[in-house]
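Hi V.,

You were right to ask for the full record rather than a summary. Here it is.
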Amino acid sequence: MKKQKSIVYRCGNCSHEEPKWLGRCPECGEWNTLLESAVLSASGSPRGSSALSEAVVHSLPLSSVDPHEGSRVSSGIGELDRVLGGGVMKRSAVLFGGEPGIGKSTLLLQVAAACGTKGRVLYVSGEESAGQVRMRADRLGISGERIELFCSGRLEEIQRILEAVKPVLVVVDSVQTLHSPEAGLVPGTVNQMKYCCHELISWVKERDAALFLVAHVTKDGVIAGPKTLEHMVDTVLYFEQNDADSRFLRATKNRFGSVDEIGIFTMGEKGLQPVDDPSSLFLVRREGDLPPGVATAAVLEGSRVLLVEIQALAVPAKGAMSRVFSDRIDSARVSRVAATLEKHLKLRLSAHDLYVNVAGGIRIAEVGVELALAAALHSARTGLPLPPRTALAGELSLAGEARPVRRFSARVKAARGLGFETFIGPRASRRDDGDAESSEPFTQAPDLRSAIRILFGTERTTGSGADD
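Predicted structure:
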């Protein structure tokens, strides 16, 4: 067999290969992206394939697989376990992204110390020195007796440490610092990230270990690098931050659980602390009447009910076209609810700029917020405040109907527990997720017109207002 070349030049942008170096990649057109890379062995087979061909391989019936191989272990942090679906799954890989300085390394160092496993934990840092990691651990009050620390981004060295330590939990901070001569000479390229992550994921898949990978994000807030990384891992988590010290942890992909759950933390002197009463972050305690444009919504985030304050402001449009300013609730949803108000209550909103905010900075994507959003917009436009200690939940149809939402009785119960005396919602609740018809008393509003009449004692169907 003809001996193949052991060196090729691979494009770091599109992975195109050339037998000799070129200044410009003929595939993608980028300049100076061809890097020297090692390739197939003299036999023409990938490294290790000859041993694999000689090994005995066989399949096995699904019924004979031990179900305990897919068991979970606690991360030691309840909010993280909630987002992961009940704990860290063995033989899984988790990709962890977020803005710089949001607390990714802090949280994973806390996980390394608190994880409910009996084995050793390996913390691989490619960005910080051992002394810097120790300083953070001392600040967080972490002893680190069972944490093994290794500061390098070279894949071959990490693999040797993995074989020597045999950890049950591996934290790599971050994937952009990983590099191997097998994939080129420059860290952070597409090839480097795919190759190094594949090798590490393969190692934990073959053992009862779990892997956390920290990833940088771009200015658009998405994980930097190839989208392939998100396909390779089992779970993708994003850390978000509002204007205060609150942090929100969400899953955009989870093979072992729901992506609807949310974890809420606050940053303090001892690191990230789970929030026991999330509603305290999103409700503003006031004495007396509410200001116009404020409504309280009972929304569902995964399995948890949150009471959040919706704030709305309507001002005459400054230009020929009105605009919607809303980054916590989808602006398309705000426009649709405003159009429903204008159609069925004759409340003129099309000539106004609409500003919508959620107290506490949490993003709301659940449909149950729509009835409270409509009430806040109506209040902002007319100047009529909502009655105090009133909460709402319900979906709005384009016909102006208030449609039922999931786990309605749990929403009513949560509102009652926080001192809300009046709860307004659809006539009937869905009977799903084990939620029967609501046993808690609430005020029924079959449509938008009824809800406005209950709240304000008038339908306010004219378009006149104080700013007309």
